[in-house]
Amino acid sequence: MAADQTKIEIKELRGHSDEELHNLTRSLTEELFKYRMQRYTNQLENTMQIRKLRRDIARVQTILSGRKKGLEARHEGGSTPTEQEAAPTKKAAKATKAKAKKAPAKRTKKTAAEAQE
């Protein structure tokens, strides 16, 4: 993947398997190293390529961590998931967030009449 191209699309990345994403991360990291070396030796003409690569790596790692935590569905093949396959994942993520946000019920003070009983 050349950094001259536009950013990597998230929809495209979600269709890849975990192994493909790990390989992509590895190749992007190697490319980032090459660009950093070129920058330090004043051979890199467009320094924005480094920023694009860093963000592409972050996109891939975000998807991998989401899959590891169970927030995203894993796909074995290289096909892009349909909306029907992705929908249950979104519902599960919302349900998990809703459960995490709920605070425990507060205890109320007893009235004098209830305390005597």
Share of helical residues: 55-70%
Dominant shape = elongated
Biggest pleated sheet: none
Low-confidence stretches: 79-86
- CATH-level-2 architecture of the domain at 9-65: Orthogonal Bundle
- Using the CA coordinates, give the radius of gyration: 23 Å
* CATH first level of the domain at 9-65: Mainly Alpha
The CATH topology of the domain at 9-65 comes to Helix Hairpins
Query: Helix- and strand-based class?
Result: mainly alpha
Distance between the termini: 75 Å
Total helical elements: 5
Relative strand content: under 5%
Structure summary:
The protein has 5 helices and no strands.
Can you offer a commentary on this structure?
There is one protein chain. This protein has 117 residues and is an all-alpha fold. The chain has a domain at 9-65: Helix Hairpins, CATH 1.10.287. It has helices spanning 10-14, 18-40, 48-69, 83-101, 112-116. Helix 2 (18-40) packs antiparallel against helix 3 (48-69). It is elongated. The termini are far apart.
